[in-house]
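pipeline: protein-struct stage 2 | run 1193 | NO-binding membrane sensor protein with MHYT domain
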Amino acid sequence: MATINHFEYGWITPALSYALSVLGSFLGLICAGRIRTAHTGGQRAWWGILAAWAIGGTAIWTMHFMAMLGFGVEGTRIRYDVPLTVASAVTAVAAVGIGLAIVGTGRLSAVRIIVGGVFTGAGVAAMHYTGMAAMRLNGDLVYDRTRVVLSVAIAVAAATVALWLAVTVRRLLALVGSALVMGVAVNGMHFTGMSALSVHLHDRQGRLSGAGVSTLLVPIVLAVIFVVVGLVYALLAAPTEEDRAGAAYLDTRREPFPATAEPGTPPDPAGLRAHSARTTLGQPGGTPFPRRRDDSPR
């Protein structure tokens, strides 16, 4: 039985993984809140995709990989199978996206939240163990079934709570508190699943295939930066409900053109045409100025 170290670099990797999960959860909750307030199906799909990328990609999968940087097994190096690693990321994003689609469309109910939470939680657990299967080391991975079941239960509970928060929480302080709670839940699921693992080393040390941590770290960090910047930009550029209300109020304050204007008549924003009509009222010949008293016939 090999000695496993989950915190090879001390507190740095768990702190960074928690920070990433909180950041992704916060941005994802904001995007998810826009789903039910969107006015078109295209807008709902857009905010659902952004929320899935934030929660599934950043809060869950990137957190998982950051925590794995601190994972080490004494007596062997660790490399990662790139296709399986990418598949684990796609699984996380797809699971969260489908869960949001379940609760974000139609009439909101407890059944929808539970069904979406079960599906999303199972997807998150599948992401975790797919990412673990992507490891390449000189040994065999063995899991304790009880702790595996416990980690799946935590993933389902965390996903259900996350979906419920995504469609109910609106205020800023509540969003921050919800993101902090979600960060604890996501990290709790990860380290519970990791505690179920034990490694039996091989007698012979063979050559390992796959990519090293340093090879994967740079593209992952760049992807996180681009995703976070893109999400922040999308949130800042999108009009809020207050913006829409203000625009509607300005529309009601605008005065329409006179109903008596003939077709093809150019606009008269200064009201000169109406003034001319008032001054010619009752004047012979349509003179635009009133007649002076000394102009009357003698």
